# Entry
Amino acid sequence: MKKKLIVIVVLIAAIFVYFKLYYRDKELKFIPRNADVVILMDTKKATRQYISSFLSHPSEWTNDKNKDRNRVSLLESGLKIPDFLQIFHLQNTGFSDWYSILELKNKRKFLAYLQQEKFVDKGNGLFHKGHIFIKIEGENCILGTSDSAFENINRLFLAFSQRTNFTSDTFIDGSLGSISVISNGKIRNFSIDIHADDIEIKTPGGINDFISLISKVQQKTPFFTAELNRGNIRNFTAFFDKTFPDSAGIDYLKATADLEQVNDTIMTYGYDDDFNEIEKKTVQKIIQPNYYISLQSSDPEKTEQYFENKKWINAQQQFVAIPFQPNVIEKKKSGFEIKSTRKIIQPSDQLNENYIFIRNNELLFSNLKSLTSNEKKIISEIDYIFYGNKGRSYYVKLKSKENNLPLILR
# Structure
């Protein structure tokens, strides 16, 4: 009898674990049909990864020094956490405008959670804090980095309530998350995985080639270096001006930059008690990049004409499209060179690859006044960011600084 009872208990426990940690509802209720980018996160897999990391780090089992027992966590906030967290970007909206729609289990609890987190109630169900906007609509809430598209999303709720063709299998295949680009009915998926000290976003295959490239680049890069061909220039500038690559005729970009803290003198004028004009000199420290940029073009005359039409070159032969002055632009046989003149930067070696490498620099985030202390802390823990492309293979790596804990526990 005891054996049967044990078997039943084990079976019930196994069923509970399966439904709690493995079974997932693959239907995606809140992906609008005019989305052009979709980000998914497998919350069940993230939970399993968190539990595994937690169990393998006993030092965290009793570590509650930062825990406020009176504080409500996100899991207890009254939100229904879906099996696949769905974040999307809408066509013809700003690059930084991203949204997610979640169901509410307990509206009263969620309102209390927003008050705890110091969201400002702007009326009509709209709440705002920092870069996050939240709109409550019935039994759902819309989270966004902007409130500009809330009205359009409201009109889409009827369509959301109907069955769609979107399931998680369309976007994600075994990875922790995915980023999917939708264009003309075609979907391009990039997997997201979180390891002990890095996050990888990639297409299948070719990773070893990128790892070798990272090894070469990071040895000689103080802050920033990049090489991009015409296709990659098109991909990056498409967010701002889709016509730029064809109109400017630029086929290749190579750039190197470093950061330096310098003294900047500001002259102001006032009056003394006798109304005599007096000069006041204020010295402040600013962060100034020193850089070298090479732009190659198969038709330099066309490129020059484009720059002149845009009024990007002034009478002093400065390239004013780059806000960091002073610099000088020089026309070469195959294109143009742009150099900062305060301090000469030597160009990095040409590797004939497509990549962007940014190494973290304390000067970078310490000068960003708009960031909160938590955001600065997150940025300070990054070691470098790498982007690489070969043919149809893409790879992005966000490497964190060494730490005793894996990323998912930090």
The chain has a mean pLDDT of 87.
